[in-house]
Prior knowledge:
The chain is α/β, with parallel strands linked by helices.
Amino acid sequence: MDEQLRVGLVGAGPWAEMVHAPGLANHPGTRLTGVWARRPEAAQELANAHGAEACTSYQDLLSTVDAVAFCVPPGVQGPMAIEAANAGKHVILEKPIAESREVAEDLAGAVADANVASLVVLTRRYAPETKELLKQLHRTGGWTGADGRWLTGALLDGPFSNSPWRHEKGALDDIGPHAFDLLDAALGEITDVIAANVSETGLWQLILQHAGGATSTVTLTLSLPLQPPFADFTVFGPNGHRTLNSRDTSAAECFTNLLDDFVAMVHSGTTTHECDVRRGLHLQKVIDLARRKAQG
């Protein structure tokens, strides 16, 4: 690229430290210019580690960047991302993109009105093995169902075990978007949540309806002490079955692939992508419907 995108990072927690900051700092098309977080000392430490500036306010960060990457809870991200889009900044969004369907709709509207680029960090969608499987599935066609399982103990131990929003919202909001996105991409758009149940231990089990008549089931939890975490997705139909359980591509590599797409979008003036803010809104609607179904 002739010119690097100046990107500001909002958030300085574990995921920002592990993925966002090094990815933005090391990508040839981006330059991590500023970091802002509610804890100034954390922002300063992360900025120092990657040659960036710790900003004293969010407005200070917005005034010096072309794009903003968010790594904060959904209740914080939604309003701040709307402000960024209104300021004409391109946005990289974590999932879920907001705390509610209403805020997600406002965010999608702000991005559209500002005509800026947006991508959602649906990590596995940027992995080559996922893209290859989806190509095979679409080439073969005729799939009638799928079963997905995403089982982790992230709330019990590890870098995200002290995350208040994850404890409050649970697996549906945290890993649900990843699972729904993969099932949706494989079988067609999710049009309804036929049934949803959540146990006292936070185990979600759902049945989903897809456009074209296919159905899928998905099981989600953040509260099983499994090491390593277990995730697989099996699609089946008259032509047999296919399973995605490979994690050959790391989260950091997936984020680099996301940045490849993001930089290309900004430099070409493209604002549409299979994982843009509209995708985030669609997944937010699925989350909203699943929670309402579970509550009866």
